[in-house]
Amino acid sequence: MKSTAFHEMVKPVLVLTCICLVVAALLSFVNGKTAPIITENARIKAENTRKEVLPGAGSFTEVDCDLQVLDITGAYKEDSGLGYVISSAHKGYGGQVTVTVGISPEGKIIGMNVDVPAETTGVGSKAGAEAYVSRFIGLTGDSSSIDTISGATYSSTAVKAGVDAALAAFEAIR
Fold first, then answer.
1. Which residues of the chain have pLDDT under 70?
2. In this structure, is residue 36 part of a structural domain?
3. How many domains does the chain have?
4. Is residue 44 within 8 Å of residue 57, measured between CB atoms?
């Protein structure tokens, strides 16, 4: 059987193109079905985190502010006046370290959550451990009185930067 240019060059390209189109269509379909579920789960997680860092909180109203200028990712005021919840994200060693801070109306940190999903387990992840996070409870002003963690300097510096950004944003929006 004689080999032709069509069988050697064009046919494989057409087959691969068809496979790619089918896979792309399937991925688009799956994304369309799962995107609303993922968005809703992220909203629920964020709401639960806000309630965790501001004990006794009911509902929140988002504060209208310039997030970039304040170096934060979100600011919320608790509707009954219990305080504010401010989130920020800063670069750690392995990726973004997200810090969510509950602040009383007087400007005192009353709760805090640190998410360090990409930090090295046992090293950078210590910046999200209760032993380190609890040092910030009761803090006002800035985090200069809190030391970084030896061996996890990038991660703990990101936590401190997040706390400082939250406290500065609180002063700007209250």
1. 1-3
2. no
3. 1
4. no
**Residue 5: predicted pLDDT:** 75
Instruction: Give the type of residue at 160.
Output: K
DSSP state of 126: G
The burial of 30, by beta-carbon neighbours within 10 Å (0-12 exposed, 13-18 middle, 19 or more buried), is given as: exposed
The CATH number of residue 59's host domain is: 3.90.1010
146 inside domain: yes
115 domain residue, yes or no? yes
pLDDT on residue 90? 94
Q: How far from 132 is each of 93, 114, 144, CA to CA, in Å?
A: 17, 10, 14
Helix then strand then coil, in percent of the chain rounded to 5, is 50, 20, 35
pTM of the model: 0.82
Residue 112 structural domain: 54-173
pLDDT in the model for residue 2:
60
* 127-133, Cβ contacts within 8 angstroms, sequence gap of 24 or more: 127/92, 127/97, 127/152, 127/155, 127/156, 127/158, 127/159, 128/97, 128/155, 128/159, 132/156, 132/159, 133/159
Centre a 10 Å sphere on the Cβ of residue 166 and count the other Cβ atoms it contains. 28
What per-residue confidence (pLDDT) applies to 120? 78
Written as one letter, the residue type at 133 is V
User: Is the separation of the CB atoms in 100 and 116 below 8 Å?
Assistant: no
